[in-house]
Amino acid sequence: MSRLVVVSNRVPAAGKGQQAGGLAVALLAALQKNGGLWLGWSGKSSGAHEPGPPEFRQEGKIAYALTDLSRKDIDEYYAGFANSVLWPLCHYRLDLTDYARKDMAGYFRVNRFFAHQLAPMIEPDDLVWVHDYHMIPMAAELRQMGVKNRLGFFLHIPWPPPDVFFALPVHETILRGLASYDVVGFQTQFDADNFAHCLVREGIGKALSDGWCEAYGRRFRVGVFPIGIDTAAFAAQAKKAIRTSELDRIAKSFVDRDLIVGVDRLDYSKGIPQRIEAFERFIDTNPAYRGRATLLQITPKSRSDVLNYAQIQREVAELAGRVNGALGSLDWVPIRYVNRSISQSVLAGIYRLGRVGLVTPMRDGMNLVAKEYVAAQDPENPGVLVLSRFAGAAREMNGALLVNPYDLDAVSNAIAQALSMSLESRKERWQRMMTHLLEHDISRWCGDFLDALGAGAEARRQAEDRRPAA
Ligand code: F6P
After folding, report:
1. Would the pLDDT of 33 be above 90?
2. What is the whole-number distance in angstroms between the Cα of residue 303 and the centre of ligand 1?
3. Which element (helix H / strand E) includes 450?
4. Which of 103, 126, 132, 364 is catalytic?
């Protein structure tokens, strides 16, 4: 069996089983099963002008090769091009992009650096699976160095339509980078279609049949692989967590109150201010819930050295304070806002306590919180998922109440509908979603992608062999 080599910007820190963000959580579950090599950034600064040497460590079946980047790399590659250009662009927020040539150059420089680190570690039969928008140029760099391995790429975030994408000055280089892989995977058909439209509309490439595309003289597969969670394990964790003294204490603090749960990294794409306003609208229009419903918003800080993130941090804190001041009473705090990470097992228990899982991003590649919320429910008394139609998860979670997060009244009404839903309807909706999640879990996602990568690269090789020599 081929060894799996995973490349991603964010890699779990030593001994830490979980991280903020779906990518690390999902990949950890995937790699723990079959083992392999995981290469990426340590999350730290080298404190020098250059990146540090890679540090190797083995945890169970996973070998890690992690590197500290220089401050300049972090500013230009991570905070700059990746998180101030590609992230807002892919989330349809052109207004928040902040393009600078030096950041773009830093992005390509760091990708080249990681490719040079990786190339000597690759064995001929390895499958290399590169993740997310930080690492798009990796395959082009590896190919230039003569690497012939099967190279796959999966984008965890949305891919925007051509009119948005072509606002990126280096859009051609990014598309060329993607065309260097054997398989390019997206979360939803919408994303894959947007990508194909980008290739086709300006005559850059062609969308062939059966998910094949051609561009820059290469054929590659474009597929849809909606990421899942370790459903059975997460459900078991929630069941266990609810019996711990910590969860008992938390449950007591909500006694006689309906708990509405929101969990998101602090990011403008997650729609947290809009959600708080929708909750305020819900209380205003449903006075019977005054003193009876609480929104618990758990929001670990993220990317704090990017300006837009520092702003959203202030905005959410002020908004939660304003709403609590306006609505709260001496014995009721309408919004409990927790601005730090919580362990995965406590989160699993909190999801199970929540009568409503409120997942309302303005735009999201998938959103694994939606899936975790469903997996954590008590089958005999499940809560209701209220889900943004602009999250990738909305394509799959057909038992959720789908909402448009731009419409505060709609979100407010969905909260009211969720809290008054009969047990029979809740069970029926939950069962539909849980059946899907058990079938489409993280191993299925990983297996489907790697099957496509194996088969995709083989088919391309055969097609190339059949081509007459130039
Ligand atoms: O899942 C999307 C994602 O951007 C991942 O790529 C990333 O690891 C995670 O969210 C958290 O973001 P960051 O690594 O910037 O903290």
Report:
1. no
2. 9
3. helix 442-466
4. 364
